[in-house]
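Mods, move this if it's the wrong board.
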Amino acid sequence: MNYPAPQIEVVANDIPNPFDENNECGPSQAPKSSCKSFNNSDDTQIHRYTGNADTKDTQDVLPVCFSSIKDGIDCWIPEKGGVNNQHMFNICRLLKTAERENSRSLELSEIRQVFNYWADKAKRFFKENKTNEDYFAEFVTIFDATKFAHDESPVTVAYKLARESPPPPGYEKLETDDFVLLAGVCYQLHLISGGPFYLSCRKAAEVLKGVGFNRISVRLRYLVRLGLLRIVEKGGPKSYKASTYEYILPQ
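Not the wrong board. Structure tokens:
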């Protein structure tokens, strides 16, 4: 039986899946040509939505809570069509960073401020059959589905949780701590994703320092053989995708 990879309900088909490891990118990965210096005062204004589509207040700078991520937001101003949703996803990861730094959840009005700041510069690439509100609805949908800050990855978060949590289900089948830890990472990824999850051997090797990606590959196959994991979809160099696994929970 084939088990589908986790999907996020989105407004548009081209909204990226925040759980897809292949979408893990941050401002440092933006094209250099996208990272502009906005010295013109018109470029540093944002529109604050007041509830009236015909009346908008402006202010010269983003709110203080966004000062640390402004440069990152500026890096994700599109320079061509067809990339708006990917750029919105990366901005939403920056907003998750702002939430972490300020130790609180953002209000919808604050999310709207950042969106309007970005949309004012990106609107020349908006589709004619979509309104500004359509794009904001997509932006909020992406934000609500985004689980990680721009400098985090699901594997890194899962590793931290695995180190802090009790051993995963089925750990009794394993004899060494290294294997238990890898199983724990897989289990936490399963919980984070709410089901099947992507896991790259190279990404796992970066987190589990001292273990090469080839050995990680062998260990993952071993976990499959023991019945702790199930391969949902096999990845590889030809598909440019990581394999998708599912942690098998006890009945």
